[in-house]
Records
---
Amino acid sequence: MTPTPALLEVSDLRVHYHTSRGAVQAVNGISFSIREGERFGLVGESGSGKSTIALALLRLIRPPGKIETGRVVLDGVALRDLSEEGMRRARLAGIALVAQGAMNSLNPILRVKEQIRDGLNDHGLRLSGKAFETRVAELLASVGLKRDVADLFPHELSGGMKQRVCIAIAISLKPKLIIADEPTSALDVVVQRQVMDTLVAVQSQLGASVILIGHDMGLMAQVVNRVGIMYAGDLVEVSPVADLFREPLHPYSQLLIASLPSLHQKEAFQGIPGLPPSLLNRPAGCPFRSRCPHAMERCAVETPPLREVRPDQRVACHLY
Amino acid sequence: METAPLLEAIHATKVFGGGFLGKGAGTVALNNFSLRVDAEPPAITAIVGESGSGKTTLARLLLGLAAPTTGEVRYRGKDLRGLSREERRRFLRDVQVIFQDPYEVYNPFYKVDHVLSTPIAKFGLAKSKDEARALMEETLNAVGLRPEETLGRHPHQLSGGQRQRIMVARALLLQPRLIIADEPVSMVDASLRATILESLRQLHLRFGISIVYITHDLTTAYQIGHNIVVMYRGEVAEAGDVEPVVKTPRHPYTQLLIGSIPSADPNQPWQRHELPVDAAAPVATGAVGCKFAGRCPCEMPVCREAVPPLFRTESRQVAACFLYRDRPTLDGADLDRVMAVPASPPVHTLVAGG
């Protein structure tokens, strides 16, 4: 039951960080696909591997990190087979990143328009003065900023405006896939909604797909179509957002959703007892079993694969 | 007998910068703010605000880490700046703090025991090594940590959640009357957040400790607080019993804030507000009127002419907004009149050293 074709296919992606104490298995052979025009949320706690996935898709993993295995196919092109130069061209044009704290990545001594020009020039797009001004104004307008922002320096902008400038740069070459890694984690809740509205607006304007990485389940519920839940380097559940919140399948997803405080009713805080396992020398079996209320003997020996157990709902758990 | 409150801010104003030789206008971080914290009956007061609301400045004033530009902060009726040596020592026991960052407060060279053994030694809480150990174990148990998994470790061997709970244990160790928790869970993961907040709440319930919980997160403020103060650019926008304030917010800012929280329910869509994008210029001294006026969907001419006082919209709720100008006003210093008084929980004390 896949109504829309896949834009991105990721299979068996495995990323390790090689340290003096051994390999940290940050991403442990995960597979998923992103459909055309969809917003896909990637959720997990710190250290679950979600940002590493973003970097791996863009081939931006730096030593001691290394992509061990995996195939990443974007719109028919196998990204890992591209030359370094080919990959550089694919970034921004095919797949763009709005990084965590992207607003602090703006160059403090360049005006906004110069930073937009950098991206275009780097991809061989040299526009004449007039055409460039028009393009910048269009880009700023699409993220809800006035054209005079083009002449400002980053320090003259608020956090929300800077984040929108970063979105404008990310879409400047009309990518097919936008990866937004915690794009609003440093912003206030009111500004967060404005930035999210902007992201959704440019996405539908471009017809692009979005991977939204984060840990705020509320944000996921409001913004994305499907959610992938990461735990200790594994993708443990992939479900449409409505199904996930109505009937989460994986015990971790269930506890995670139960731990969310409500604004409607006072109740005791329910945490998830225990800690995620060390990613160094990962034990065999299910990574969640030490914290799982349903753990069985089988969970200690056999790692459950991610399988489709309901229409469009996938889970990695022996209960199903 | 009327006793002085444990800790109170009285018309406290804090201005940063601009003061030297009187040139330029400073930034008003906190403006004429009053808050009274009683030890009896113990209560949890949540202070909610976004960045720039003055909530951290308030915490620093209450802790005596900064002095107000005008106004006072009083501990048991005496200005913090005029405490005697003995009173200061008592203040440092009575009022404890938990900071935002559970990574920065540790010295990486010491074992985590150090943060617990130091106050025990400084305040003479235990007569022997065994007694000190017993006290440490007991406080760790009280916050849901297993001493055998915690003591003897270095900070980097523990998770952020564990480290933050050790900070809660350290605060408890001194059997304070008040804990000021400044964004205690904003840097830990969701699944651990609940555990830390629950251990804070347990301190209140079991040991009768008052808590000032400072946060940007209205949802946890609602869950843990009896009372709430919503701040906007250094001033109280709305305050009172947490139930009416969160369920029926009156100030347009509180309404905007609550409407902006993404609900973890896909069937409950995000509220859309049409609001001017980025009206977030800093406020200079001398600006007149309501600080929210530029972003407010209900703005009236009067909002640019005068600063709205607190209007008592319900018996346990005040809002600083001219929409309610037909209601009686309340002086900011009398905020405690609209605060809920929680039923006194049974109080336990720590056995060792107590």
---
Amino acid sequence: MEGIALLTVFILSIFVGFEVVSKVSTVLHTPLMSGANAIHGIVLLGGIMVTGAATEPLEIGLGVVAILLGAINLVGGFVVTDRMLEMFKPKKPAADKSGGAA
Amino acid sequence: MSQTWVQAANLLAAVLFIFALKGLSSPRSARNGNLLGAAGALLATGILFVSGIPLNNLAFIIAAIAVGSAVGAVSARRVKMTQMPQLVALFNGVGGGAAALISVIEYLEVGSQDRIALAATVFTVVVGSISFSGSIVTFLKLQELMTTRPVIIPAGKFVTILVAVATVVGAVWLVVSPQAWLLVALLVLSLIFGVLFVLPVGGADVPIVISLLNAFTGLSVAASGYVLQNVLLIIAGTLVGASGTLLTREMAKAMGRPLTSTLFGAFSGTTAGGAGSGSDRPVRSASPNDVAIMLGFASKVILVPGYGLAVAQAQSTLRELADLLTEKGVEVDYAIHPVAGRMPGHMNVLLAEASVPYEQLKEMDEINPEFSSTDVVLVVGANDVVNPAARTDKTAPIYGMPILDVDQAAQVVFLKRSMRPGFAGIENEILYDPKTTLLFGDAKDSLTKVVAALKTV
């Protein structure tokens, strides 16, 4: 793709990135950070591409490490975010039985 | 598969990422948002394999993905909720490392890139490496494998500036005259800079740095997308870079800390707080029975949970105490400081785990006016977030951070393990106040005893 087209995508993405998180409560700062962290794990794709094109052993070796790290970031990121957000689901009725605390 | 379909699938993945971030901004849609993001990542990865790009070394690729996914998923499943912030830091670091490596490999493979691609390569290597080594240091700090206090190395300011200048010069030189050894040197310099960058940051400010490094990794992923001419990497990386920058600013604001003083405060030499000084001053300590009586005969009690509560796994015991007090007709609220725990929102996650009703959790701005009409404040394993030094002592590393005004209440009870200062490493004057009572011991242990005593009151 042309450089200028990529630049367009880049600039527009900056605005979208600012826009989507402009109103977020403090409570969600940690899960949001963690979710964003998972999304940049998509760098895994880059690892697959360069390893797929590699011919020298050094390149292959480094590529395997890059894929490994990318996959940890991507999969681990989404899983740990999900675990945090599990806690935010609506309370089960069981929480009410302890004497009118709720 | 035709290129149009591949591009359409990548577009869909990009849209899913945007929905993911949007969803994560509101409690109701957060969990689904995260799942949408995961779906987008799965789609994009699957499409890559059938897109028709040449893939050598397929066995290595599949094996590395399998092992990496397993390591990521298992560590994310197994980690204790209290240790979750440092795991996020670690995940962020390895992402930055991956981006840096990818640009190095692409450089080795292609050999001659045009100037702009070279600049993008250099950017990815520098920023990705800083994010990698910086995140490792934040991990070590949060895991308390190294001191959580600001580390001031002799002539640190000078060394850091020197390394920064060398990195910039190396980066420019590499773009002008590309050489492999220079790329390696630049990688090493950036790794060192990442360490120097995070070392002087004090424990309480570490979450802000994690968020900043998260934005760094995003930008380096975007730059690697330019190197590889991959639009999805550019979009995803930029989204994270932009939203992460905004989030970092929001977090700093929530803690009342200008970003610059967080990052460079230690260099000005103002943060080496007087920890340990005066630890032999007299304090008033009490038995669990005394505490139970104070609480039982109060009409309004506010509970202030902190990281010590989480470490002792005492969330449910605290809830039991709250329920018991409510039964006795005492008005009970939880005061949640925005950065109670180790990260903004961390305490909410931990208390939700113990199924404390969401409505009883009051945020700082909401609860602060209520302290003056409160009989007893029970502080469980918190310290820095109630330390009035944040209001009064200009030399304290936490100066300027909004705190819970527990000193306004009629009586304050601290459940503490010892007189050791909090994460920020500074003394808390409230502990010596005549209206303060201390109950020493493990938070869970102490709470259990107070609950037992309260039943007999």
---
Amino acid sequence: MALQKSSNTFSIQEMIREKKNKKAKKLQIEKIVPFLLLLTAIVSVLTTIGIVFTLIAETFTFFTKVSITEFLTAQKWYPFSETNGAFGILPLISGTLKVSIIAAIVAIPIGLASAIFLSEYATDRTRRTIKPILEVLAGIPTIVYGFFALTFVTPILREVIPSLEIFNALSPGIVIGIMITPMIASLSEDAMSSVPNSMREGALALGATKFEVAIKVVLPAAISGIIASIVLAISRAIGETMIVAVAGGSTPNLNWDVTGSIQTMTAYIVQVSQGDAGYGTTIYYSIYAVGFTLFLFTLIMNLLAQFISRRFREEY
Amino acid sequence: MNATIVKPTIEAVMNHNNSKQSAKAIVYKTSGLNLWYGENHALKEINLDIHENEVTAIIGPSGCGKSTYIKTLNRMIELVPSVKTSGTIEYRGRNIFNKSYSVEELRTRVGMVFQKPNPFPKSIYENVTYGPKIHGIKDKRILDQIVEESLKGAAIWDEVKDRLNENAFGLSGGQQQRLCIARCLAVEPDVILMDEPTSALDPISTLKVEELVQELKKDFSIIIVTHNMQQAARISDKTAFFLNGEVIEFTNTDKIFSTPLDKRTEDYITGRFG
Amino acid sequence: MKLIDHAKVLKQMKSRKASNIFFKLLFMAATTFGLLVLGILLYRVITQGIGYLDFQFLQNLPSRKPEQAGVKTALIGTIWLMGVVAPVTLLLGVGTAIYLEEYARKNRFTRFIQVNISNLAGVPSIVFGLLGLTVFVRALALGTSILAAGFTMSLLVLPIIIVASQEAIKAVPKELREASFGMGATKWQTILNVVLPAAIPGILTGGILALSRAIGETAPLVVLGLPLFLAFLPKSVFDMFTVLPMQIYNWTGRPQEEFQGVAAAGIIVLLTMLIIMNSIAVYIRNKFQKRY
């Protein structure tokens, strides 16, 4: 066939058939490619395995030097003392929690209010302008926020609270709150925007105000997405490093004072990494034990967020 | 290209002679074809013979399996997960479900035009050369000629010859569909499958595609699925009426539209349902 | 019988409407707060740093004297880091995305990979530092080289580019794939010639976002043990180096007031790079939006 079909002086099908001697090569490519792609996909799995394995192995070594009971229950963290060193993680956890709670207190109301404004009140144009700006806010490197906390927020706070130390929990807490606000705002706005308009219209037609619709209809309908966004944001706050390393100080304390110098789990790892704790020392292994604790905290929060958004997903 | 004289091959002469005879060669022979989407029995015991250089129309209400059937002919249906088939479809005497039959080879011989025009987001030129290129034809001179011949064959050459390097998305819907036909012609297929090719087009573009089908029929065997009975009546030689996954009637087009044998066919073509 | 006292409803209406307006303003104020903070932050950094920012600042090596300090080593180090992270993440990220979207069967293993990726995205960056310290710096003996830092950062930002590429690949219409298969193209030919070209804008946007995350991160690099102060330039990927955020961190921690200005100048350089990269991403997104 083929020749009578056009004025072509050649048959394309015939040429294709000739090229088919490359077919074996083509078939090989078709078989090799998925395998290579699978290998790249496995890298992400290996990363997780690597993280978990590294943390567990080095933490295990740490526990041959320091008992688990001491780690979990001792009230003091004095790793650098030669004579009466103590490795109780509680002071570091307390530092982390102080900062995270302050961050949550700042971020939840502001983030939710922004989400409601963007989803329920703002015009399309406003939303399209503001959302990217919030994303920019989320994309600023944390070291910049750290600089901001130390050189701007702390001095202002010290005007108001004279007893505030230069390094404290309040200032980094507030700045981390500012940092995670866009995350809550953006993710909650997504959850609220996906509530179907018919539900809003039903309430509006009964004479409800926009505020009542937002609080009594949209918020309950989107609650799982909103809670998930808050949990994720707090998880970010727990793992945040540079802001607390710059503005939080390096004094592990087990108390609820927010005006004094603190140390979070992340800041401790930074402190040790910058110092000259030699490979193989107890201090060297302690950063893995602290890192593992931090990892567990954030992992549980992330799984919780996933569970909430899956378990309570509304079917509209 | 040199202006050379066309030298018909033996195969071409035979085909040519064949097409003159009343009994044309069978391109597709479907025997006892069943198809399931999971539990859903979508095609039931289909037996159909499709002949060379004819236009075979497949009509029927939506959901009757006509699209499924045409997509089975080039095994595109396998892109849907959980599809199972039984029975055979022989293309030029070889069962296409045979393990040794490569789908790529089948689809190189059997072109397809889809419901919605689906040009690639590339230039008009690249759209037409896509097929030849993936099959290893790289000679620029040959590709240039393929582009011209294919676009002429799809009756769109005059409209686009001055802007071959522009993006195909700049064309109108009707032009896009003819470009898709040209893209299909570029590998010189044996059969062209058309799955409701005009359903997304305006009446004038539809008319152009219909005229084109009449023209292409001389060189290709065409199977066309349509929901438009007038279209089937206008352009096809034979018509198959599908209902609930079964072939109710399959015969010459003028016959099916004038004296349908089955009551259900009559109901459908007179617009009582569907 | 009258169940509803319309007079009372009307009376309440006023206060309900008032509270609606009150809360609207409150919500608006909260949203403005975010913008305000961004404004103050930029204003502060620029006014503090602009005095130290000149051509000399970009060319000078770090110094003990604030007026002579410069970002040359850090800036060049950041560019080196990008040179490692960009190809590695692009290769691994796009490869993973293609595998998951085009080849993987919808089974438990695939779901596991997917869940794993979203969990990785939530792991604190400092933990990646611990991974890098153990695996790249020590086990593979790469030391605090560009390669060790580049690999660590690549793993950190991998989820960003995977998810972005998956979205981009998913958005390629099914019809285009069908057209290609219908021509007798193989799966890989279809992916290479049709799917990837159509998905490239989304992939690039995600890639740039991932890269900007990588050049802004500090914590993992501190853990790897990157020097805070380095007075020579790296010559190959096996050399020691430092990056802008590390340099800024170093200056921020100095007690002298002047170094805060120098740190601010460093931040301006870093933010300028990020703004340029993000503008490119936005440009790509807008230019190629809604092509099909």
